[in-house]
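Thread: FE2/S2 (inorganic) cluster complex, take 2
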Amino acid sequence: MSKILSINGKSYTVDVQDDMPLLWAIRDIIGLTGTKFGCGVAQCGACSILIDGKLIKSCSMPVSYAVGKEIFTIEGSSENLEFLRQAWNDVNVPQCGYCQSGQLIAATSLLDTVQNPTDKDINDAMSGNICRCGTYTRIRKAIYKAVELKNQAT
Amino acid sequence: MSKIQQINRRDFVKLFGLASGGILLGCNLSSDKKEFIPQIEGVFTPNLFIHLEKNGNVTLIASRSEMGQGIRTSLASAIADEMEADWKYVSVKQATGNAKYGNQNTDGSRSVRTILEPMRKMGAAAKMMLITAAAKKWNIQKVDCKAENHFVINTLTNDKISFGNLVDEAKKIDVPLEETIQLKKVKDFKYIGKTLKSVDLKDFTHGTATYGIDVRIPNLKFAAIARCPVTFGTVKAVDTSDAEKTAGVEKVIELDRIVPPVGKFFGALGGVAVIANNTWSAFQGKLNLNIEWNYGENHAFNSEDFQKKLRKRVRQKGKLVIGSSGNINTAFTKSEKVIEATYQVPFLVHAPMEVPNATAWFQENKIEIWAPLQDPQTARAELAHFFEIPIKSITVNVTFLGGGFGRKSKSDFVVEAVALSKKINAPVQVVWTREDDIKHSFYHATSVQYLKGGLDNNGQVLGWLQRVGFPSIISSFKPMSDYASGLELNQGFTNNPYKISNFQLENIRAESNLRIGWLRSVVHIHSGFGNNSFVDELASTAKIDPVQLHLNLIGKDRVVKGKSKFPYDSKRMKEVLKSTAKMSNWGQSLPENHGIGVAIHYSFYSYVATAVEVSVNNGKVKVENVWTTIDCGLALNKDNIRNQLEGAAIFGMSIALYGKISTKEGAVEQNNFFDYQMTRIKDAPKIHVAIMDKMHEPPTGVGEPGVPVIAPAICNAIFNAIGKRVRSLPLIDEGMV
Ligand code: FES
Ligand code: FES
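Output below.
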């Protein structure tokens, strides 16, 4: 059945079964491959996206859920995501980079909800995301850096 | 290699006898040059690794795979430094798998170690040619020119000409002979030894880096494969009707096991493949298969029973290993105190964030693949062997790797993809589920080791007996290899950093019933754990500070020359230990329930010492701080090295806290990240890294040496905190997580 998905402000018509997880509709049908597959069972956060601003693991959410809602992926841009990108760059966070789409989306969701996150806020917001390369030290540093950049800018 | 010999015969290239198997520096300007270095109008290509365009843009070729270790940036920075290129104009392109780039195997922390110098020479040669071109233009001597920041400067007049504007002239210049190439002095380095950011940051932060799993080509099909839960089991019967009815599924195909010849290659496990028009449908179709398996001879394999068997075997004498010295029996008789301990490490799996996957297109008499491969040339050779296609008709495109850790050196997933593409006559991408990855890997072996040590009254270690048993990697290439090989034992067992006059190493039989492979730092995980845990036990028995006992055991300054060009220097081992002790404030008093532990290790020719502080509350461990010092010789990219060691601490923590693969009736019990757990950010300690300043020493390994010290340092810290010895990993099995 064909449905319309709105991703990063653009509309896409997809013809897939209702229960296909969003992750695969986004990657295989629409072709936006920035959102990654890591586990398929809501354990690793590689597939993180925002739906109407809420952090969602797209591997475990059916396409039907997102119809009529706004999807935001790593291919998109938002004020907080841009500060985070800058900070990720300044701190040189990634190693293999594979988990970083999900990390950046989870961090965006954090900054969207908490203005000045503490260590605990970061732990709570980011512990759904695994980085097998172990870049956690830098992720934490970069989140603080992004907040700093943002506070400087405003 | 045959191609290179052919070049020699025809005598129109000047070949380097370069360390890494003959990288082609370049050749004289002859029309035949095109065969080796594609000549593009308006682009200066002095060798395979450098492309300079008229607009000044430089593309450098990375011959090793990027899997998070920062190699693309590191190697390119070395070329750019010698070339005097401006980093702003540099971009990096990945080489295809091809012997003309020299050995591309990205493993063993050896990329920088083996090809740094050749890469520097590539850059230096390009610079010389640019200078020659400019001198010609100005009609002056070469000595009156210098290159700086993407320009050649006329030192007589201070005129400048940009690299881009020299392209046409430089194309006409002969490639210099190797012996005429001069490399920069350490003090003149601009990028080497400095901090450079990854060249791939923009792609990594925008989701635009193409990993294997992101490859999309027209008419691509997606495949998932059901493999027998027991290693090397086969399909007895399959009912495909439900799978075929699954939405999106196009075909179900049986795939025979592809058995590798003895001694090389990886083959493929075989099973039942579901072909679909998207990944998820393939996964669903696979779940809907009804398969009856012939489990075969590994069905009886129960890892816990096997470990019990090993624990028994280490109580008996094993095969004496060369490298033992003195007489331990006399030593033990003379000893005041003799202690013994048995240590165990479980099977482990790599679980890189990006699962194994490969895209293949088999067309009549040619193959093209796109895959996250650590060793593209072996994959290419393997494909040529199994599919009987001439190697030159096989193109291997290396994508970004979403982590490798040794898993992606084994090209079984590529063989699967090619076999399927051949069968369905279309391009296909094989994607492993995470469960596939956990259940069908080439596992890091389990090990059991028994140690016995004798101390005199002054806390001198008089004798050291070590029996070690673990299934050998060789068993994956040669069945019935029931003992660890010499090469494996030479990872921290025969060459531990200590000087012990009465030392005996014994090899214990350990058969294998799983595919065994290598995982980041390999056998050093075992030796690092056994050696450092036992030194800590000896120290507490002798009531000596563990740092002091390590120093005593390392002994006087000495240099041990092995077969390689990197001798072991005990002084450097002591230096890193002292640095870590200082950095961690070793000896200070700690809060209640806190403890500190230390471990040292020498691996991949690098020296590492780590101290870990833990707290233990209600029996649960929290890792608070990690201090690591590395001496890796010339530190090519410092921030990258720091990043690697931070990552190694987290990787080592996952091993210490959670890592365990177990089998029942031959089948791996773990499934996914909920039962094969990883360190998460909430558990991450503060990590402090120091890099020794050794810019005049040759560079040594970085990606792996930070791993083996972590688990023993954590366990030693636990002992320091609460007096409990953990001799068997992981801590979660001890109820401590
Ligand atoms: S792929 Fe969705 S959480 Fe891992
Ligand atoms: S950077 Fe490799 S998994 Fe996070």
